[in-house]
Amino acid sequence: MSSFKKFSSLPPKTKNVVVAGGLTGFVISVYYYTMRAVGGTDELQVAIDKFEGMKNNKNENGTPAASPGS
After folding, report:
1. DSSP assignment, residue 10?
2. Where are the beta strands (DSSP E) in 1-70?
3. How many CB atoms lie within 10 A of CB 14?
4. What was the pLDDT predicted at 45?
5. How far is CA 57 from its chain centroid?
6. I need a labelling partner for 53 at 20 to 30 A (CA). Which of 3, 28, 38, 64 fits?
7. What is the pLDDT of residue 37?
8. pLDDT given for residue 41 in this prediction
9. Which domain holds residue 53?
10. Total structural domains in the chain?
11. How far is residue 25's CA from residue 38's CA, in Å, rounded to a whole number?
């Protein structure tokens, strides 16, 4: 609890800077964690590419491509 006593004795502007620094550090760390988690795997893009490849192979083999309206 002595650290809270030291924090309480700081001037208000210094307290604000300490709190703002802590919050900024937290937000930045959450942002980078999220970006790494989301960008780490690209499973959806791999599935889309595989589907597009299968669709193109069918079109090359003489099967007519389905029209967008059907």
Report:
1. S
2. none
3. 11
4. 79
5. 33
6. 38
7. 81
8. 63
9. 2-60
10. 1
11. 20
In the structure encoding, which two tokens stand for residue 68, read together? 């967008």
Nearest alpha-carbon partner for 17 in 7, 6, 27: 7
Predicted TM-score (pTM) of the model is 0.50
The single-letter DSSP state of residue 68 is T
Q: Quickly count: other Cβ atoms within 10 Å of residue 15's Cβ.
A: 13
CA dihedral (44, 46, 51, 56) positive or negative:
positive
Looking at residue 22, its pLDDT comes to 96
| Lookup result for tokens 């029209």 | 67
Cβ(18)–Cβ(7) below 8 Å: yes
pLDDT along the chain (70 residues), means of 10: 77 94 97 83 80 83 57
Q: How far apart are CA 46 and CA 34, in angstroms?
A: 20
Residue 33 CB partners (closer than 8 Å, separation 6+): none
Retrieve residue 36's tokens.
């790494």
